[in-house]
Structures are given as structure tokens and as C-alpha cells.
Amino acid sequence: MATGYKYQTGFVLSGGFIKGFAHLGAMQALIERDIRPQIISATSAGSLVGVLYADGNEPYQVLEFFKGMKFSDLTKPVLPTTGFFELDELRDFLKSHLKRQRLELLPVPMVVTATDLDHGKTVLFRQGDIALCVAASCCMPVLFTPITIDNTRYVDGGVLMNLPVSPIRQECKTIYAINVSPMPSPESKMNILSIAERTYHLMFRSNAVGERTLADVLIEPMNLSGYSNIDLDKADEIFRLGYEKANEIIKH
């Protein structure tokens, strides 16, 4: 290992909701070329697939966990006071599929990014209850009810840092960043949820500009905008797009 670096290789996984399956495809391609992370920094959907990999599963195995699932299997609709859905089902899903339940026990260290809604800042979880920290990181405002941890309310890490390269930049010799949050087509239907989604994408793109430049290798599948956030049945297709893009980048 290079002197001065704690880790030789780090992976950074962006937010992107359903497009997070592209992370798995890109990771699979990298691992097949013997490029494995010694640490992972992730936000939102990236943190969800990242912890399942860090717990000891290969990317293609993580994909299998979601086979046959629907959006409604991971969320619960509620009276829309602080959000339209709660993420209790997502937490239960993680608890049932993880061998370890705390971040500090994972074989591959994880940094899970969330946004402290009460104090307006990014928080980096390196220890704590995995299901709770990941739910906080995935908690898209308005769509989901904020997650409370130690009397503080948290929402999606992508609000302030959708591509969290800087948290591990000084620790890693080489960082592979996978960004699966392209801008959706402007021709998409304009309803309340699509307007909110497009606004989030603008915000995510803006706060990722500086972070993108900090990565040594940047993998950005650009053909993901046509997938709805409830298209869990398209997981295989999205996985393949990430796989193909990573192979294309690494060949050059």
C-alpha cells in the first residue's frame, strides 16, 4: 500500500433511487478486473447497495435480494404530514438480509452520508445501526418522512452531497466514483412528483460538480433517465447498463 494512504482503493456511490442498481453492475465489472474497494463512501441508493456488498455479498448476489420486489415492499404510505411514505419496510428488509447490524462491524468500512435537517449540514455515519443510518441517507424529502436518530431528524444525503468523494479523498490512493444521477429528460410529465424529482436532480447535479473532479476514475451511465423510481422489475436492465459503462471506462 502506498505510504500516506490508509486505503489503496475506495469506491464512491452516488444517490439515484432505482438507478442504484447500476452501481451493482459497475461494481461487478470492476471486481471482475480485480478492482475491489477497501472502503466505500455512499449516499442514498448507493448506501443501500453499498452496505449489502460491504456485508460480504458480491454485486450480482445483492441484485438477487431485490428480485420480485415492488416499491410498496420497501415503503409504507402514511397520512402526508411530513412525507407520503415511511421507510420502516426498508429497515426491516436490511435487518433481514444483513449478517452484521452495525456499520463498524462491516468487513469493508462504510461511510454513509445523510443530511441533518435540523442543523442544515452533512453528517457522515461510520458507526451505528446500519438500517437506521441507511434509511436516513435514503430519505428523500417530501416523499419520505424524516428519520430521527438521537433526537435529530435526517433526510437524504444527496440534498447536500450526492457524490461523497471528499469524505474519503485523503484516505485513498485511488477513488472510483460511480454517479448514477443523470438529469431526467425535460419532456417528462409535469406533475407534483415529477417536478419535485426534477428539482432534486438539479440540486444533486449542482452539489456533485466539485466532488466529481476529486475522483481518479469517474463512471457515469448516462442512459438511465428513462427509468421510473418504481421500476424495480427493471433491475436487471439497469444493472447491465452500469456494467457496460464501467467496462467501457476501464478499457480506456
Summarize this structure briefly.
The chain is α/β, with parallel strands linked by helices. About 35% of the residues lie in helices and about 20% in strands. The radius of gyration is 17 Å and the shape is globular.
Describe the protein's architecture and organization.
The protein is of the alpha/beta class and 252 residues long. 37% of the residues lie in helices and 18% in strands. It contains nine helices and ten strands. It has helices spanning 21-32, 45-54, 59-65, 71-74, 88-97, 130-137, 166-169, 192-212, 235-251; strands at residues 7-13, 39-43, 76-77, 85-86, 110-116, 121-125, 147-149, 152-156, 172-178, 217-219. The strands form two sheets. Strands 1, 2, 5, 6, 7, 8, 9 and 10 form an eight-stranded mixed sheet that branches. A two-stranded antiparallel ribbon has the order 3-4. A hairpin with a 4-residue loop joins β5 (110-116) and β6. α1 (21-32) runs antiparallel to α3 (59-65), α1 crosses α9 (235-251) and α2 (45-54) packs antiparallel against α6 (130-137). The protein is globular. The model has no long low-confidence stretch (mean pLDDT 89).
